[in-house]
Amino acid sequence: MVHIDEKLEPILAEVLRRNAGEEEFHQAVKEVLESLGRVVAKHPRYANHALIERLCEPERQIIFRVPWVDDAGQVRINRGFRVQFNSALGPYKGGLRFHPSVNVGIIKFLGFEQTFKNALTGMPIGGGKGGSDFNPRDRSEGEIMRFCQSFMTELHRHLGEYIDVPAGDIGVGGREIGFMFGQYKRLTNRYEAGVLTGKGLVYGGSRARTEATGYGATYFVQSMLATKDQSFDGKRVVVSGSGNVAIYAMEKVAEFGGKVVACSDSNGYVIDEQGIDLDLVKEIKEIRRERIVEYARLKGSGVHYIKGGSVWDVACEVAIPSATQNELSGNDARTLVRNGVVAVGEGANMPCTPEAVRIFREAGVLFGPGKAANAGGVATSALEMQQNASRDSWTFEQTETRLANIMRDIHDRCAETASDYGAPGDYVLGANIASFVRVAEAMEALGVI
Ligand code: GLU
User: Do 35 and 142 belong together in one domain?
Assistant: First the structure.
């Protein structure tokens, strides 16, 4: 069992006290602090100047009202958030999440994770996250547009290509980014392409950005498997979720010779022993915007739809949880281990509970934590910013090659760091320490701010 070094205990106690009730944030901070004991033992100066305390306190937190009018003419109110967590390495960077579960604790956990994830990419980007408790499900396109415009009407004054650069996350895809970019452009009278990423190709987006998170997670798992002389070839794979991350993880797994036999949404999951038909998932999710039960209805025989339940009951050798935080419990992890899982790569942010992570690590399963395994999305956002700054547009191949190299570098840096700190193969420790050291060095250089 890992635990927190006694020098770091008061820091955690203060985080718990100051952010009462924000469980996901506590969970994310705790996981990082558990890894930092070894760093502070080796380099005591990182515990000076309240550096770790400052790293746990967001630089700025913005909470605002988002009024909008629904199709029936009724006025609705949602709450908007942007947590600008850390800008030691570059402008705040991180997605916007529109989901009814969103609250300040969830945005803070995501912003905290993002700071470390972004540091791991090696790109010049700080960490931030935002969103709203707005539920886009069953809303018309007009309602979505009016909501996005109202959201941006307040948020725009806090953004800028050198200040804070949002992108998508759950509930925010290309359509929403387009509406928000349009409103930002209108309000500021500037064509400032680098203020948002995940844009459409015709107005400054990057090729391969849509695919990047799922592709990147698959590249990461491929690198982990290679350390054991294994590959995806012929392996049974389960990917949870059926959104942007899941779809492109499934695509890359199939390209690498693996067979994805199940995927899910928040209502249930489908098993297709023939291998999930990706064109059908894309049609259902990206065009019709319907639920995954439609897959079974349209495909007919040979496909099982299970309402509720856990997709992790489906036996597999590789698991890529790509839905949402804490979706994979300790019990799920036990089932996966019993069924012979060899590698788990977190496509979503913090999808495995602390108990699940412990079970995988103890069972010797290759485990890629989200801040390393799903960093491909934000890394490609940084490539989009690069193209915007140089008014350039790269080919798909060029962009994907950069992504693949970045993911290999992240994998290797995590593995090397874990070995340097006496825990070979421990990617959680490697990712936490490698990213912490990068942010800490920059914070140290910039003085007490
Ligand atoms: N929401 C994504 C993440 O969790 C992408 C953020 C971005 O591209 O800025 O990393």
Answer: no
Residue 399 Cα, ligand 1 centroid: separation in angstroms? 17
78 domain residue, yes or no: yes
Structural domain including 110 reads 60-194
HEC sequence for the chain: CCCCCCCCHHHHHHHHHHCCCCHHHHHHHHHHHHHHHHHHHHCHHHHHHHHHHHHCCCCEEEEEEEEEECCCCCEEEEEEEEEEEECCCCCEEEEEEECCCCCHHHHHHHHHHHHHHHHHHCCCCCEEEEEECCCCCCCCHHHHHHHHHHHHHHHHHHCECCCEEEECECCECHHHHHHHHHHHHHHHCCCCHHHCCCCCHHHCCCCCHHHHHHHHHHHHHHHHHHCCCCCCCCCEEEEECCCHHHHHHHHHHHHCCCEEEEEEECCEEEEECCCCCHHHHHHHHHHCCCCCHHHHHHHCCCEEEEECCCHHHCCCCEEEECCCCCCECHHHHHHHHHCCCCEEECCCCCCECHHHHHHHHHCCCEEECHHHHCCHHHHHHHHHHHHHHCCCCCCHHHHHHHHHHHHHHHHHHHHHHHHHCCCCCCHHHHHHHHHHHHHHHHHHHHCCC
Establish if 443 belongs to a structural domain: no
User: 46-88 pLDDT, tens per residue?
Assistant: 999 999 999 999 999 999 999 999 999 999 999 999 999 999 9
Question: What is the pLDDT, as a whole number, of residue 144?
Answer: 98
pTM of the model: 0.98
Tell me whether residue 447 is in a domain: no
Examine the domain organization and report whether 222 and 260 are in the same domain: yes
Identify the pLDDT of residue 2.
59
Residue 201 located in a structural domain: no
CB-ligand 1 contact for 347 (6 Å cutoff): no
Give the active site residues. Answer: 129
Ligand 1 centroid–CA 85 distance in Å is 14
Q: How far is the CA of 379 from the centre of ligand 1 (A)?
A: 8
Atom of ligand 1 nearest to the CA of 94: 9
CATH number, domain with residue 158:
3.40.50.10860
- Out of 147, 164, 194, a domain closes at 194
What is the tally of structural domains in the chain?
Answer: 3
